[in-house]
Design a protein that fits this description.
Length: about 60
């Protein structure tokens, strides 16, 4: 298992979002994304949250 440190990216939400609303993102290493089978044309993902763990896995077109 490879481990890397990362920062959560916080950005103020736009549009009709409430005052003080934020969007969040995490950058993933391209090698990991490629190895998981994601591409520009096939980018469906399923996110699972369990207590304090987030899991990302490849999703099917009708999933997520």
């Amino acid at each position: 298992m490879e481990t890397r440190k990362a920062n959560i990216i916080f950005a103020k939400a736009g549009g009709n979002a409430g005052k003080g609303s934020y969007n969040t993102k995490v950058s993933l290493p391209k090698a990991w994304v490629d190895e998981m089978g994601f591409s520009v044309d096939d980018r469906n993902a399923v996110l699972e949250y369990d207590d304090k763990t987030i899991t990302i896995r490849k999703g099917e077109a009708d999933e997520g």
